Amino acid sequence: MLRRRKPCLPKGKTVRDLKVPEQRHPEKAHRPDNAQPRKPSWIRVKAPTGDGYNATKKIMRDNKLVTVCEEAGCPNAGECWSQGHATMMIMGEICTRGCTFCNIATGRPNALDTFEPGRVADAVQKLGLNHVVITSVDRDDLEDGGAEHFAQTIRAVRHRSPKTTIEILTPDFLKCDDSVLKVVVDAKPDVFNHNLETVPGLYPTVRPGARYFHSLRLLQRVKELDPSIFTKSGIMVGLGEDQQSVKQVMDDMRAADVDFLTIGQYLQPTPKHHGVDRFVTPEEFASYDKAAYGKGFLMVSATPLTRSSYHAGDDFAKLRSARNAKLGQA
């Protein structure tokens, strides 16, 4: 039987003599200097549940796979997993970067698992996916940044599920030369996604280990190496940017020939992460959507709950149709 321990008190003092700090705002007491604001109605989602969700979870566990849905605390996980859609995160669950918006653990990663590409392919086949999104942590500890591992995973999925279209969401391969990117491109993913994440002025505080123009050049180089591959990138809003800087990022992406833009609301994972500057309204998201199409993107997803892989399969079908329509007009 556990016994309740008595508090350790100064000599001659009783519990009544102790002063309890005043808590004017108990909901903010965990960190008053960076309290997480209450989410508006348009950003709230239902908790994950249901047979479909549990079946997807079991396949992930049986194949010992990590998902960014869980690691990053995606608000859409319940909806996506209930439909058998999960974004698989390869090369472990420890990242070598320390971005202030991201909830993925930072540290020294383990060695690559040579059997992981096969397990990803097995999970894709069991889930019966028409479209799969595969992402990874940053692996600055590897000479090629994990490029060959990405290529092996793409080939394994293609071999096991030849009709499945493949979308990859890669790191920036910042410390690697151009030949590394070619390894990934030569594996022929259908969509090459690399997120800029935010506007350039916020990079020092939000994405300190990355370089804005390097990421832009990465996306541009993919198109130069293989124009048939769709390129995709996304940013979060609510980090402290203004509308003009968001539209400038759109222009930069179009200059790099990016096909597909995603814009979603930033949600602070914990009080230790970068704070939410504001919750952007659905009306402002609609204005971004209109502006982006006006700048020439083939596909745009700009809503509070938009994430890189949210409805990725449906969006890919629309993206392909938009390209075909554009080519038909040429």
TrEMBL record:
InterPro entries xref list: Aldolase_TIM, Elp3/MiaA/NifB-like_rSAM, LIAS_N, Lipoyl_synth, rSAM, rSAM_sf
GO terms, biological process: protein lipoylation
Cofactor(s) listed: [4Fe-4S] cluster
Gene Ontology CC annotations of this record: cytoplasm
UniProt: [4Fe-4S] cluster 1 binding residues: C69, C74, C80, S309
Residue positions binding [4Fe-4S] cluster 2: C95, C99, C102
Homology family: Belongs to the radical SAM superfamily. Lipoyl synthase family.
Name under which the protein is recorded: Lipoyl synthase
Organism of derivation: Shimia thalassica
Upper lineage: Bacteria, Pseudomonadati, Pseudomonadota, Alphaproteobacteria, Rhodobacterales
